[in-house]
Specification:
Two copies of one chain form a homodimer. With 664 residues, chain A is α/β, with parallel strands linked by helices. The first copy, chain A, has three domains: 276 residues, Rossmann fold; 174 residues, Thiamin diphosphate (ThDP)-binding fold, Pyr/PP domains (Rossmann fold, 3-Layer(aba) Sandwich), CATH 3.40.50.970; 127 residues, Rossmann fold. Helices cover 42% and strands 13% of the residues of chain A. Chain A is built from 25 helices and 20 strands. In chain A, strands 10-9-11-12-14-13 form a six-stranded parallel β-sheet, with helices on both faces. In chain A, helix 2 crosses helix 9 and helix 5 runs parallel beside helix 7. The longest helix of chain A is centred in the middle third of the chain and has 31 residues.
Chain lengths: 664, 664
């Protein structure tokens, strides 16, 4: 290591460690061990523009081991991102730009929110995939307008998580050669030596997934790291895992122990570490001038890289004007003007239709007009109706294919669509059965936290799926998804509400979850019911009581809306006049002005909600004087109509409960 | 294949396929392809007693590919379990013993509920682990009282799921030589050829995990399957994966296509299949007499096996009476009489204590008296305080160790503890941070569905964990867990409530989730507050209003109880008299008689609930006239007390909202 490199590496180390020390909180172990690999990557390879973190063709860098955030903040600061040193001094403090784990959208240069292990690994796969798909779509001979790497630093914890296994297998299948992960192989976990629980042969495992695996025996050997990354870049057909043997807490008295993982060194050990590595003791957050000058060359270099790319884009625009126009629209995140032109309108005469089927039709109508629309299913595409017909299968042989086969890997699917959305240029979707949203919940939460524009399609949305039984029947899932802050859940009642839901899913920012039926449901006449205006408001009066003054308001979502409509008829025969409110989305309804909400759920009428899921939460809408028909138990295996009927989802029961509520 | 074997295999095939056909629903593909391997396993190896499915030392068999349930039901019927043929004819019908996917506790002989892929794989690891631990604890020279295999049939879908990767790595680390999985390698998934998404080298991957991998190139070659299973049993140090190349829908016109995976063959294809395999066309559910006689030999053999084992147990009882007494207690699922003798009582004078710390002390007090108590953490044991001090680490070198190092593998951990509980002889626990319950949610749901007696320990239970920030701060998790039917969630307020919660966790059947603080909280004086009686009822009046007639009831859970207590004091200074209700468990409270519930949450007082999580759901307890202080957004990174204060969890805010509620 030459002197300048040495200085730079130690600058990163101690900026990070000083930040942790100042905060009395954080993880010094990773930065001390992994600073050399981070430095080599950023110094010799990373193509980025610190003054424009949003430059579309930048290399992506993910710190999947998000607990090492202090290292990332050190990098961002010294390389000239808009992250003043003051912010490093406010590490983990209220309102700072340097939270405990990196947060996308919060700190310039942070590409993804990480910390929950394995997520960063899988999001990087999504980024590399988006790059590959976009390159296929836009690059022309002599015009590599999309051409960048996706790098990451991953930890043993990342590799232990199942989501990483899933994502690694897909990256191998898709031959994402521009995906390069440096594995901080420090042999230590929180509970002790990795041997306690991690004895597998990582190299063989990743080779089995179709990766190139390279080994750097000494994590302080910058030249060896450089050679390995070079070799990783040279391999275009396989993603690369560079196993870098490091020492957690390098240089500190606690080196190679779990004690240095997640707690500040403390003043004495910090002093000893600085002494051991030849660092000035007296000035925390010290950045030698030569080091800073060296780091900051990245600012000029980055500006040049982006200028060169802009020049390439200018030439591309002349040579391939249509393509360039589409590309620029996509980079801005704009939709084509006519994006919704083909969306279908369904007529009751067409007969009943499952909302999953309507969704599939809407998706195909969108696919034609929205070239960024791309996604797939966790091996359930025929059931979730999510195939974009005629748009090919994504994979290296057909990198332009827009149908993604995720295999039975819901969790990686969730994170990969997050990664695609973070990359930009894609509006991704991910589909499975509603009950299996459990498998991907940690990724859905991150989508909500990052507000990525991803669309989760969850079909088979109730016990009405029937014979597959309780393991496949969602009961608590609508409510569990509604519980996640920042996620919009939509459960449309019919084919036309489904189309309206898709409009929202495409236009609205942030993640969306659609809950769709397996079974057929009647089509609501769009000329009779105010669907197009109603759905975006989350809830609306589908049918008024005959005299306009409801004795009772029946609220329902999804397939249960049709039961409510039928119950309304029955009640009318008994002189009870009911409004029926369709409520596809709690989140959208809660956003409405109080006056609108009162208009829909008027306080002067008792309310009965019907939804084939747990009742908890409905009290917010029906109030003390209302009632809820729901399901506070698991379902059962039998034909769907039987299950519904036996568990109380029939017209008779609704009428009975409505009358009981009215004291009749 | 000799004639009888042939007959037996086809009997299984067509019982399954006829059941699917009759139900017009189900999965014929797997039974047709996998019947030979199932037959060889059950015919030549499986040690079980069909007339006593609960025989403790039986081999366990798990159909991880639960969608092939019809094959399992066929096996159970022909081998003489209490599953009449009539039940196969009622496959997937309301009230039948043959639901769409196998359900533990519902059908005799079903060892685990499967269907959600990967779960069965991981639960089998838990069973093999329990066997290993119990063998270590109880076996003596000449007395192998615990000595059985755990077998399973797994599918490509199982192997794709991350949970299986996690579990496989652990099984390799723990060298579970008596775990043997047959992999139904049929090259077909729902979306098409497995090559679409599953190109990895399964053999190398599992060898990397430390497994023995054996290959059977022809899934109809019974002799080769037998040799492979024999070889698997011969390997005592490594779990074995036998890759059996099969043909989905074997013999049918749809063989080797996705079309035969999940839909009935239909009458024509069924006829063609029976013709192709030489099966009588006219009688569905046909069981040749010779085949049945052959299968049913298992009944006598099983009785003999159990008798021999009983004889062994009798001799063991004489030779090792104490050990035998413990073993028999454990088999009955009984607790030692003095199981709770060491549970601590905490005094306020000891100073404040985090409930995670109190939990750790309670656990260690239990460990001494409850030898079945065993578990671990997903690499967070020092933080979750879940180490059983002095009880060693589980692993082959120390199979009696009771501390399990799961690594960063929450999902497998959840399923493995399910498997341990299903096996019997262990009361297992699994620990991680509350926010990471998301990673294991599918396993928690199965625990609730199966009502396994497992204890989930979720520490760092609110934004009060502080600096780690929103990726680590649970907000929606308490409510999401409460949403799962059959799961009991307990969030104790202090050290003594924590001990009371542990009592419930040990004594109550079914799964339990404890939510515990990272931060210190005051200790409530057990002589002053009715903790021991109150906690089991889910909610109780901790302190009454001074005059006994509350102007307002403050309801809180966990650490927020102390805020409520302080707010009560402040309110009293302003002449407002408040009850404080501690509500550690909604589920337990909901089970109480109406009269008790009214006594605690009397309808004539306005109620204000305080919990550092989403507000949704609280309306059920506070009613229209009440209010909720919660958090309907993500948290933030800063010291815990700062985060709490900034987000409204302080005494002043509670007082303010209480007064507002009272219109003052």
């Amino acid at each position: 290591m030459n002197n300048l490199d040495h200085l730079c590496v130690n600058t990163l180390r101690f900026l990070a460690v000083d930040a942790v020390e100042q905060a009395h909180s954080g993880h010094p172990g990773l930065p001390l061990g992994a600073a050399p690999m981070a430095y080599v990557l950023w110094d010799r390879f990373l193509r980025h523009n610190p003054r424009n973190p949003g430059w579309f063709n930048r290399d992506r860098f993910i710190l999947s081991a998000g607990h090492g955030s202090a290292l990332l903040y050190a990098l961002l600061h010294v390389y000239g991102y808009d992250l003043p040193l003051e912010e490093l001094k406010r590490f983990r403090q209220w309102g700072s730009k340097t939270p405990g784990h990196p947060e996308y959208g919060h700190t310039p240069g942070v590409e993804a929110t990480t910390g929950p292990l394995g997520q960063g690994f899988a999001m990087g796969v999504g980024m590399a995939m988006a790059e590959c798909a976009l390159a296929c779509e836009f690059n022309q001979p002599g015009f590599p307008v999309v051409d960048h790497y996706t790098y990451g630093i991953v930890s043993d914890g990342d590799l232990m998580e199942g989501i990483a296994s899933e994502a690694a297998s897909l990256a191998g299948t898709w031959r994402l050669g521009k995906l390069i992960y440096l594995y901080d192989d420090n042999h230590i976990t929180i509970e002790g030596e990795t041997d306690l629980a991690f004895t597998e042969d990582v190299r063989c495992r990743f080779e089995a997934y179709g990766w190139q695996v390279l080994i750097v025996p000494d994590g302080n050997d910058l030249a060896a790291i450089e050679v390995a990354i070079q070799k990783a870049r040279g391999e275009t057909e396989r993603p690369s895992l560079v196993i870098v043997r490091t020492h957690i807490g390098y240089g500190s008295p606690k080196q190679d122990t779990a004690a240095v993982h997640g707690e500040p060194l403390g003043p004495e050990a910090l002093r000893a570490t600085k002494e051991a590595l030849g660092w000035p003791l007296e000035s925390p957050f010290y950045i030698p001038d030569e080091a800073l000058a060296h780091f900051r060359r990245a600012v000029e270099r980055g500006a040049r890289l982006e200028r060169e790319w802009q020049a390439l884009l200018d030439a591309y625009r002349k040579e391939h004007p249509d393509r360039a126009a589409r590309f620029e629209q996509l980079m801005c995140g704009d939709l084509p003007a006519d994006w919704d032109a083909d969306l279908p309108v369904f007529r009751p005469e067409q007969g009943p239709m499952a909302t999953r089927t309507a969704s599939g039709k809407a998706m195909n109508a969108l696919a034609r007009r929205v070239p960024t629309f791309m996604g797939g299913s966790a091996d359930l595409a025929p059931s979730t109706r999510t195939v974009l017909i005629g748009y090919g299968d994504f994979g290296l042989d057909e990198a332009c294919g827009r149908n993604v086969h995720f295999g039975v890997r819901e969790h990686a699917m969730g994170a990969i669509v997050n990664g695609m959305a973070l990359h930009g240029g894609r509006i991704p979707y991910a589909a499975t059965f509603l009950v299996f949203s459990d498998y991907m919940r940690a990724a859905i939460r991150l989508a909500a936290l990052m507000q990525t524009h991803v669309i989760f399609i969850f079909t088979h949305d109730s016990i009405a799926l029937g014979e597959d039984g309780p393991t496949h029947q969602p009961v608590e899932h609508l409510m569990s998804l509604r519980a996640i802050p920042g996620l919009t859940v939509l459960r449309p009642a019919d084919a036309n509400e489904t189309v309206a839901a898709w409009r929202i899913a495409i236009e609205r920012r942030g993640p969306m979850a659609l809950a769709l039926t397996r079974q057929n449901v009647p089509v609501l006449d769009p000329h009779r019911y105010p669907i197009a205006e109603g759905v975006p408001r989350g809830a609306y009066v589908l049918v008024e009581a005959e005299n306009g003054h409801p004795d009772i308001i029946l609220i329902a979502t999804g397939s249960e809306v049709h039961l409510a409509l039928a119950a309304r008829e029955q009640l009318a025969l008994r002189g009870v006049h009911a409004h029926v409110v369709s409520m596809p989305s709690w989140e959208l309804f809660d956003e409405q002005p109080a006056e609108y909400r009162e208009r829909v759920l008027r306080h002067d009428a008792p309310k009965l909600a019907v939804e084939a899921g747990i009742t908890r939460g409905w009290r917010d809408y029906v109030g003390d004087t209302g009632d809820v028909i729901g399901l506070d138990r698991f379902g059962a295996s039998a034909p769907g109509d039987v299950v519904l009927d036996k568990l109380g989802f029939n017209v008779e029961h609704i009428v009975h409960r409505a009358l009981a509520l009215l004291g009749r």
